[in-house]
Specification:
Strand content: 5-15%
Shape: elongated
Bound molecules: adenine
CATH superfamily of the largest domain: SPOUT methyltransferase, trefoil knot domain
CATH architecture of the largest domain: 3-Layer(aba) Sandwich
Distance between the termini: 44 Å
Number of strands: 9
Oligomer: single chain
Radius of gyration: 23 Å
CATH class of the largest domain: Alpha Beta
CATH topology of the largest domain: Alpha/beta knot
Length: about 300
C-alpha cells in the first residue's frame, strides 16, 4: 500500500517554508523498534527528554524486534538474495512487532516473559491494517533530511513509530508495505538508526509546550519560527570581561529596543556568513535588507550581477 493510501504525507512532500505553527499537542507517544533498546537508556535518562518523560509530556515504549521472533535462535537478519556481503534485516520480525504494537493502545509492551514464546496471534501472510495518522518512520540515510521544518511537522502527531535499521540494510518490503516515511539525520552513515531516532525524539520533544521550562526557548532556537529561520547570534553571560574580550556594551545597556535590534542584526550577520542559503527563505524587513546590503549581500559576481 502506498503511504498516501494510509492518509500519510508521502516522503519528500513537505512544505519548505519557515511557517512553523506553534505546537499545540500536549503529549506524544513514541514506539521505538530496535535490536538495541539498551542504547536508549542513557539519553532518555538525562536532561530535557527525562524531564519531559517525568512530566508526562512524552511517553516512550522501546520494543526489541528480536522479542518478536519465534525460531530457536531468534534470528533477525539473513544473507542478501543475489549475493554480496553483509546481512539484511528480515521482514517478519519487524512486521510482527510493528503490527502487534500499533494495533494496541499507546503504552502497550510485550511482557518480558512473553518474548519469543507467548506472542499475540499474527499471520505472516495476512496484511494487517494499521491505524491512520500514526507515521511509521524508518531511520535511514536514504530518507528525507531532518530539519527544523520536518521536526515541527512530526511534532503534530500524537503517536509515531520509529524503526531503527541495522546491519547493512533492511528487506525492501518493510519500506514498500509498512513504512510511511523515511528520515535521515544527514548525509553520512552511522551504524544504525538508533542514534538517529534519538536525535529525532529529542528535537521533537523540545517543541512541546513546557518541555524547556521556558516556553519561548524552542522558538528562539536557530532555524525556528521565532528567528524566521535565521541562525541564532552570539550569547554572553557573566563575567563582563573574559581574557580581554568584553561583552558587547549594548547588552549591558538595559535598552530593550536596541538589544532586540542588535540581536536581529547579529542573527542576520551570522546567517550571511555561515548559511547564506537560509536568507533566501527568510522574511526580511527593509531594515534587515539595508543591514545585509551594508555587509555585502546579496553576493554579486565580478561584473556586479547578482549570483
Ligand atoms: N542510519 C544510518 N545512517 C543514518 C542516517 N544518516 N540517518 C538516519 N538513519 C541512519
Amino acid at each position: 500500500m502506498e503511504p498516501s493510501e494510509r492518509g500519510e504525507r508521502p516522503a519528500g512532500a513537505i512544505d519548505d517554508t519557515f511557517d512553523n505553527q506553534a505546537n499545540t499537542l500536549e503529549h506524544i507517544h513514541f514506539d521505538i523498534f530496535t535490536l538495541f533498546p539498551a542504547m536508549f537508556v542513557g539519553p532518555l535518562g538525562e536532561s530535557i527528554v527525562k524531564r519531559a518523560l517525568d512530566n508526562g509530556l512524552i511517553s516512550i515504549c522501546l520494543h526489541n524486534i528480536r522479542d518478536f521472533t519465534t525460531d530457536r535462535h531468534h534470528i533477525c537478519d539473513d544473507t542478501p538474495y543475489g549475493g554480496g556481503g553483509g546481512m539484511v534485516m528480515k521482514p517478519e520480525p519487524i512486521f510482527r512487532a510493528v503490527e502487534t504494537v500499533l494495533n494496541r493502545q499507546p503504552g502497550w509492551q510485550l511482557a518480558p516473559e512473553d518474548a519469543y514464546v507467548n506472542l499475540p496471534e499474527w499471520n505472516a501472510g495476512e496484511p494487517v491494517s494499521l491505524p491512520t495518522g500514526v507515521p511509521i518512520i524508518l531511520l535511514t540515510p536514504q530518507g528525507r533530511r531532518l530539519n527544523q521544518q520536518v521536526v515541527t511537522e512530526l511534532s503534530r502527531y500524537p503517536r509515531m513509530a520509529l524503526i531503527c535499521g541495522r546491519y547493512e540494510g533492511i528487506d525492501e518490503r518493510v519500506r514498500s508495505q509498512l513504512v510511511t516515511d523515511e528520515i535521515s539525520i544527514g548525509d553520512y552513515v552511522i551504524s544504525g538508526g538508533e542514534l538517529a531516532a534519538m536525535v529525532l525524539l529529542d528535537s521533537v520533544t523540545r517543541l512541546l509546550p513546557g518541555a524547556l521550562g521556558d516556553d519561548l526557548g524552542a522558538h528562539r532556537d536557530s532555524y525556528s519560527l521565532g528567528l524566521d529561520g535565521l541562525l541564532e547570534g552570539p550569547q554572553y553571560t557573566r563575567p563582563p570581561s573574559f581574557r580581554g574580550e568584553q561583552v558587547p556594551q549594548v547588552l549591558i545597556s538595559g535598552h530593550h529596543g536596541m538589544i532586540a535590534r542588535w540581536r536581529r542584526e547579529q542573527a542576520l550577520l551570522r546567517t550571511l556568513l555561515r548559511r547564506p542559503d537560509l536568507l533566501a527563505r527568510t522574511t526580511l524587513t527593509a531594515a534587515d535588507e539595508a543591514f545585509l546590503r551594508r555587509h555585502g549581500w546579496p553576493p554579486t559576481d565580478e561584473v556586479g550581477r547578482q549570483k
